[in-house]
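Field notebook, page 262. I keep forgetting to write these up properly, so this time I am using the form the group agreed on. The chain and the ligand, 2-acetamido-2-deoxy-beta-D-glucopyranose, are recorded exactly as supplied. Prediction of the bound pose follows.
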Amino acid sequence: MDFVLPLLIVLLQQEVGALKLLQISVPPYAVKSGNALLQCSYDLESDTLYSVSWYKDNEAFYTYKPKSDPKQHSYVVEGVRVDLAHSNHQKVHLRHVELHTAGRYKCEVSADAPKFLSLEKEAFMEVVVLPQEGPMITGQENIYASGDTLALNCTSGRSYPQSLLRWFINGIQVKPDSEMIIPQQHGLYIVKSSLRLEVGPHHLASGQMKIRCESAIQATQMKVPLINLQNTEILVQGHASIYSPSLSLLIIMLLVRQHLVH
Ligand SMILES: *[C@@H]1O[C@H](CO)[C@@H](O)[C@H](O)[C@H]1NC(C)=O
């Protein structure tokens, strides 16, 4: 019985006092040319910190050791530029994000003697390139000539990953007839979506028809919502009568609105 109690106390102390890695915080996506803040939160309890190390795809790019001089060090890894002035034992700032910055980020926290406990957590970061301009609708110049058929194209700005384009007529989503993905330099894409529409009286029930093209970016790796929603609208005014089924369409405004939703 004599030795059971001290042993139990030692075990309890290890349980209570041990290092815990609480959370890794990595943005699910970073915007190209911007910055990214990576954070690792841990509770040392009664342990002392030996080191915090960060890895991208298992390659170390940053370590912090409180007993070293200097305390922090960064290693050359493609696409990773550490801002040492804004990094420490809890966070790492990355500067000038590029497409190569995307990857799996791991934070590893190690406790000093006597336990030398080492814990790690990881998270994925994607890099997106947002289009510089909103989607463009073309083809409305031909509406007169083509009578009651609209043939429109919507073209996205250059982005990575490719933009998702969606058409809406009077607020109701309609399927495009075809879509083209056009690769550009630097790994970017332009998307072109074509819509052919036979205009019927129901489209012009209120005297005008609103045709909207929406573009959005969806980072692919995670279930994050669409970002960088942008819309371009054209407004078509016309008149439909049961006695004169051929519609005369008149564009009253091109490119009514273009707005950004964050
Ligand atoms: C739409 O795009 C297609 C494919 O590039 C092209 O053939 C067509 O002429 C374009 N139409 C309009 C109305 O811009």
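OBSERVATIONS:
- The helical segments are 4-17.
- Residues 138-139, 142, 151, 153, 192, 194 surround 2-acetamido-2-deoxy-beta-D-glucopyranose (CB under 6 Å).
FOLLOW-UP: compare against the apo run.
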